[in-house]
Write a structure and sequence with these properties.
single chain, 289 residues, alpha/beta, Rossmann fold, N-(1-d-carboxylethyl)-l-norvaline Dehydrogenase, domain 2, 14 helices, 54% helix, globular
């Protein structure tokens, strides 16, 4: 088992770090809100650190899972950042959904210090993190990935090396682009059925077994019809992810007309106070005038 540091104990990071500890790894955790780190140690044991550098000192693997590009830089770079405490031959794994440019920047910074780097954004939401069944999309060097994969497996159902540094983040962008259009289509279908006056539970049970079936339909269609959104992957987070994808598209020339439109729909949800509603709250724009 390995000596591991985990930086960022939010909705995703808290249970992910817990699965690493349960797998037998020796963990030191850091969180900007120290009370959250203390709570984690009470629940899972392990140790806390006062800075990311302190957490990373002597660790074989350092994980980070924070908010955005600037948050990642603040905990990984600089005098008190994790990289400053890491030793040659150790590996840094960033589970944050961030830009591909940042992943390449971190890969270069890590390499200068003799440290391996894997960009490893995840999909599966809070439930996936709590149940240890996340899908992890990785970018980096094959030898570094080979050493990190068994550790990442602690909280994952599937871990895949997609390609060189940045490939994990690009794959997460594809993931979010696909979800955005799918959820809007699901919302429109559910709203249409309700307006038509048909039994939506029977509709969902029937069409979920055919070509229209999806994870979103299985897990969100019923709650969408009930106007229940106080759970799941927050609209604020989805808009952050879509912004990353839309900015990447500007540089690579990809056209994302549906993604751009759905992003504006999510902006309208935010205006209704739905910043922390689940992404399925696109339904609210259709079912509530």
């Amino acid at each position: 088992m390995s000596k591991v540091a985990f930086i960022g104990l939010g909705v995703m990071g808290y249970p992910m770090a817990g699965h690493l500890q349960k797998a037998g790894h020796s963990l030191t955790v850091y969180n900007r809100t120290a009370e959250k780190a203390d709570k984690w140690v009470t629940e899972y044991e392990g140790k806390t650190a006062q800075t990311p550098k302190e957490a990373a000192t002597d660790a074989e693997f350092v994980f980070s899972c924070v908010g955005n590009d600037d948050d990642v830089r603040s905990v990984l770079l600089g005098a008190d950042g994790a990289l400053a405490g890491m030793t040659s031959g150790s590996v840094l794994i960033d589970n944050t959904t961030a830009s591909a440019d940042l992943a390449r920047e971190l890969h270069a910074a890590a390499k200068e210090n003799g440290v391996g780097f894997i960009d490893a954004p995840v999909s599966g939401g809070q439930a996936g993190a709590e149940n240890g069944i996340l899908t992890v999309m990785c970018g980096g060097d094959p030898d570094v990935f080979a050493s990190a994969e068994p550790v990442i497996d602690s909280y994952a159902r599937q871990v895949t090396l997609i390609g060189p540094s940045g490939s994990g983040q690009l794959t997460k962008m594809v993931n979010q682009i696909c979800i955005a259009g799918l959820v809007q289509g699901l919302a429109e279908g559910m709203n249409f059925g309700m307006k038509a006056g048909i039994d939506m539970e029977k509709v969902i049970d029937t069409i979920s077994k055919g070509a229209a079936g999806s994870w979103q339909m299985e897990n969100r269609a019923s709650t969408m019809c009930k106007d229940e959104f106080e759970f799941g992957f927050a609209v604020d987070w989805m808009r952050k992810d879509l912004d990353i994808a839309l900015n990447e598209a500007k540089s690579n020339g990809a056209r994302l007309p549906i993604t751009a439109l759905v992003d504006q729909f999510y902006a309208a949800v935010q205006e209704r106070g739905g910043n922390r509603w689940d992404t399925s709250s696109l339904m609210h724009l259709l079912s509530n005038k």
